[in-house]
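Whether sequence alone determines local backbone shape is best considered at the level of individual chains. Part of our work consisted of pairing the sequence of a single chain with a tokenised description of its backbone. This step matters because it turns folding into a mapping between discrete strings. For completeness, the protein is quoted in full, as a sequence line and a line of structure tokens:

_____
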Amino acid sequence: MHEIALVLLGTVLVNNVLLAQTLGVSALWGMSSRLGGAVGLAAATGALLVLSVAANHIVYRWLLVPLDIQYLALPVFVLVIALIARGLVLGSRRLDARLHHNLNAMQPLLMANAAVLGLTLLNAADTPSLALALLRALSTALGFALVLVLFAGLREQLTAAAVPLPFRGPAIAMLSAGLMALAFMGFVGMA
């Protein structure tokens, strides 16, 4: 239980995929202007992270390693991620029309999210068990969601704030992201 808590804490706060590893930063800029869009993207990315890490871990351990074709991991992982992202969009059609519309609009951002591919590649070689890979995927999804929602809330507050003219727009967003990264660096000694 102690190890699970350390993996969760370490991945969410210390080795955050957006702030420490800078994977998936395009999502930080692309969908963080509104809190509702950020929550939707965080949920969709979290589902994609967990499903793609599980599927790619199985493909890597049961197909690529036994056939000794690990060099094909990158194109195979990209294909699996694209299929799962498309499956999420198609599966959402049965649940809710508005959810389907939102996921359909986010599909290119989901498929091209470097956080999903980066975590899949890191887990393939370093993680021996599927349970640990899923735990890392879940904690990465939580860390991704935490930063995305915090940054979206911060950007909403900045639109109402009296920001000096030279700092308005992307400049204040970049400064805010840098300060948020510095704040998260304060958690380094915890895990």
